[in-house]
Model the fold of this input.
Amino acid sequence: MFIKWGIYIGTTSGLALGIYMWFVELITERKVYTLLMNVDFIPVIGSIEWPVFVEWLFHMSISWIIGMLFCYIFMKKINVTSKRQWGVALGLAGIAALTYFPLTVLAIKETPEVTDVTAIMYWIIGHLIYAIVLKSSYYRT
Done:
């Protein structure tokens, strides 16, 4: 059951993050959406020019894993409380937000600079939105 529910909350959270980053890049021209979808540094798959829907599938795959992990924690390991849900959601999103630095350093295509404070703030806000949607999407009776 945690797989099905994890895919659901991973989908809602991943869509929220992706759409937010897309709008931020569209409005500000900061390449945060490009960074989110970028896989050009991964051997073999990075050399292929993927269509947008495949880039989204890569992004969503990571989000589904995070969603399943979130669900697994609360369905199999610890009792659900709102405080614990917030802690786990913020922890998982925080780990994901820290990928800004290695993804920026490893990227071949143009992405924000590793020292671009504005882009980092957009990235952190996006991952806070991710945590909020992740926690809010997990509703179990």
